[in-house]
Amino acid sequence: MAIFERSVLGLDAGSHTLKAVELRVSPRSLEPGPFRVHPRIDAATTLSEHLQRFIAMHKLPTGHVATALPARQLSTRRLEFPFADHRRLAQAIPFEIEAETPFRLDDIYVDWNLLRAEKSHAVVSATLARRAQVAEMLGFFQAGGCDPHVIEAEGLVLANLAPVFRLEGTHLLLDVGHEKTTFCALHDGRAVLAHSIPVAGRAMTEAIAAETGLSLEMAEQRKCEGGALGRGGQPGSPGVAAIVDRIAREAVRTLEAAEARQGAGPVFRDAKLTLFGGSAHLDRLDEVLAKRTGLPAHRLRMPADAPHAKLVEGVDPLLFAPALALALRLAGEPVTKMNFRQGELAFRQDLAAYFGRELRPTVLLAALLAGLLLVSTVTTVVLQHRRVARHEQAMAALFGEAFPNRQPVPTEPANAFGGELRSARERADFLGLYSDDRSALQLLAELSRAIPPDLEVRINEVTIDRNQIRLDVAAGGYEAADRLTAVLAANAAFQGAKVAGSVKTDSKTGGVSFDVSIPLAVSSDGIAGGA
User: Fold this and answer.
1) Percent of the chain with pLDDT over 70
2) DSSP states of 62-110
3) Are 292 and 244 within 8 A, CB to CB?
4) Contact at 8 Å (CB) between 71 and 182?
5) Residue 37 pLDDT
6) Which domains occur in the chain, in start order?
7) ∠ at Cα 463 (457, 468), nearest 5°?
8) What is the pLDDT of residues 165-184, one digit of tens each?
9) Does the pTM of the predicted model rise above 0.85?
10) What's the first-to-final CA gap in the chain, in angstroms?
């Protein structure tokens, strides 16, 4: 089984046979599983015992099961509301049902399908079931070793066949079984109305037996061999013809009721009849029903180009159609979403079994991913540790070359390099290295030597930064300013010396004051100043 795949089971508890359809559902696919059938010949054996044998014999998966309440136990009402909000509808529908039926809300379960919705109007088909009948059916299944997730409405659930078999437009589905015939009216793929009548294959067999005096087994064989409805100009069984006439009349009445309920005009008069069920194999049944109703009739068939054609490949779709509809209820996006397992009868998931069965692939995948993550983390740590060790060895070698007198080499050469760099910067800041790696003292000494003794100037303030030297000078006259700048400019260290700003006259002394700006030389690497 692929990861994230689960098996769902549609279980059709018919009066004559039990039928099961298993589908394997994953996020991207819908694959068929085994289709199984189990006869219910022994009338004295209970449904629970048949289920138990059926499940054990074929090892059916019971983790996700859908079945249906018989249509005779259901009642449907058409309701209209002046709003279409889903939450408000869910609150209002039970009270409307209680007002229209003799049952108390405590005695029934109600579920519904939306037939038509507009901005301020909704038409709803609400179906109710007695709680006692739901509990009785659930008890049979649980005693048989099966706890269904979903208990659907027989008949209405057949709408799930529409998208798979491409039943477009308006259809009347006829499930002609052993003891009853179930009708489901579809409009645009949605179930409008469903009900059943207690005549089908068994009534036909009994009619042949009554007419011919044969046993029921022999009469069943004659019915299945063909000719019950006439063939090649030969008359058929009057009793079988009468039963088929009744089914035809009921089909017409169902379409009329569905048209009135849907309120969609005469669309149901153009409906197609689609037959399935074990008794739908009766020879010429589709022809006779088409003639009696005036509507086209055909047996259920899968279009060859349908996306899910493989679902019924190699099996009889007529026999397994109801069970397939139930299985589709649990797969993907079903058309019907009714479920009478509500309240105290709601499905309770066994979390221990769920985690052990359903999440085992997920747990295994998570464990695999966790193991891969652990291996990746350990590998990354080891590689990073080796890379750091190599880098530290290289830095230790560089430190030994740069500082041969520092032995032994520190255990953390990177931090030692950082400390040496900070120490060098502190010494440079303290010494004040400037142009050509000369200190401020060296610049002042050279400046003193460059000024001739006979030049009568007084330097009041000297400012040295990375880019220039600035002098605040007082002199006896303007000639002193010109001579001072000329003398300084003649020195290679003070080229570009000039008077910055204007020369000011001191009215008290008769002298002048001015500023001299001396740009510092640019080092050979193009960076002004020193470090």
Assistant:
1) 91
2) -SSEEEEE-GGGEEEEEEEES---HHHHHHHHHHHHHHHSS--GGGEEE
3) yes
4) yes
5) 94
6) 1-76+129-166+306-353 (3.30.420.40), 167-302 (3.30.420.40), 381-431 (no CATH), 435-519 (3.30.1360.100)
7) 100
8) 999 989 999 999 999 999 99
9) no
10) 73
